[in-house]
Design a protein that fits this description.
Blueprint (H helix, E strand, L loop, with lengths): L1 H20 L25 E14 L5 E13 L4 E9 L8 E2 L8 E12 L2 E8 L17 E11 L2 E9 L17 E9 L4 E10 L2 E12 L2 E10 L4 E14 L2 E12 L5 H4 L8 E11 L6 E9 L2 E11 L1
Antiparallel strand pairs: 1-2, 1-17, 2-3, 2-4, 3-5, 5-6, 6-7, 7-8, 8-9, 9-10, 10-11, 11-12, 12-13, 13-14, 14-15, 15-16, 16-17
Length: 325
């Protein structure tokens, strides 16, 4: 086991060094759709941070009702114009779970899930260490935004609106307490091409190797004023299994009150693999759907949200409030 650990770590380090030192310096444009719960934009001094707090009520048909809370903390050190050091500390006891349950014996779960260096350059960025599962905007078929893996991500803008992404590394464990432990296998690889075709259409296409599964992933997005329609399809090529997502991300007004809505239909094959379980708030395989609405409250910069999930016979209702600092 240990020779494999050193071999995979050494290979990742070698690739990382090649990319880090053979890309042109300069300041990269901010990726469109970068998660707003992470410090972004121009560096504001040597140290930046973001704290996200959430409390929710979880009513699910296959288990007892529960009240939960979540803390997400994003510290960041800006070492120079191009280099920065990032970390991610969050509650929860699983790769795709970031909530603790009030009253549980293990309600004090919190762990450092990421620790990595980022270098921005004229044509993109490079991340190296225990890094996020996303490069920017989070797709419905992507892995959980609270997850992690050990390795490297390199994003290269071949020309305006056209990007290539290379990811190589390992998911060493789905236990957050072991996120920084040395991986003993090289089990994750992704190569993705994304393009903005015009003002209305954008697309992504990628090949993936994730924990003994081989996948092809495609995504098409149709942009309109205040709404985006999207279709995402993932094919497990070594086992003839599929995942399909059709959805809408929109914003509308109830009178003078703005409301955001995110809704989708999804189908996941029964033997799709562990990749399905590593997505956000995984409920199960089969046919399903979700509708979430959210908005701002007029007090203390709070936001509310409500969500309904259905997967075959499992039903779930979430209701909560959150605030970012």
């Amino acid at each position: 086991i240990y020779p494999m650990a050193y071999l995979s770590t050494g290979l990742t380090c070698f690739i990382g060094c090649l990319i880090l030192f053979f890309t042109p310096p300069g300041k990269a444009s901010e990726p469109v759709g970068e998660p707003i719960d992470e410090p972004v934009g121009e560096p504001a001094g040597f140290y930046q941070q973001k704290l996200d707090v959430q409390v929710r009520y979880d009513n699910r048909s296959d288990r007892s009702n529960r009240s939960q809370f979540r803390l997400r903390f994003y510290p960041q050190l800006n070492l120079s114009e191009q280099w920065s050091l990032h970390s991610f500390v969050v509650t929860g006891d699983d790769f795709s779970s970031s909530h603790n349950t009030f009253g549980d014996e293990d309600s004090d779960q919190i762990a450092v899930r990421r620790l990595y260096l980022r270098r921005t350059h004229a044509l993109g960025k490079t991340e190296f260490g225990v890094i996020p599962t996303y490069k920017g905007r989070i797709s419905a078929t992507g892995m959980s935004k609270d997850g992690w893996f050990q390795g490297i991500r390199h994003v290269y803008e071949a020309k305006p609106g056209h990007k290539l992404e290379l990811v190589a590394g390992a998911i060493n464990s789905i236990d957050p307490n072991k996120a920084l432990s040395l991986a003993d296998d090289f089990n994750l690889f992704e190569f993705e091409y994304s393009a903005t075709i015009n003002e209305q259409f954008s697309m992504e296409f990628g090949v993936e190797r994730i924990i003994e599964g081989n996948y092809l992933r495609s995504e098409v997005r149709f942009h309109q004023t205040d709404q985006v329609w999207f279709a995402e399809f993932v094919r497990r090529v070594d086992d003839a299994e599929n995942k399909l997502v059709l959805g809408l991300d929109s914003e509308f007004s109830l009178g003078q009150y703005p409301v955001e809505m995110y809704a989708y239909y999804a189908y996941v094959s029964a033997d799709f693999g562990q990749r399905a379980e590593l997505t956000e708030d995984y409920l199960g395989t089969g046919h399903g759907g979700s509708v979430e609405v959210s908005g701002a409250l007029p007090i203390a910069q709070l936001h509310w949200f409500s969500r309904i999930d259905m997967v075959d016979s499992t039903r779930r209702i979430l209701l909560g409030i959150k605030r970012s600092f």
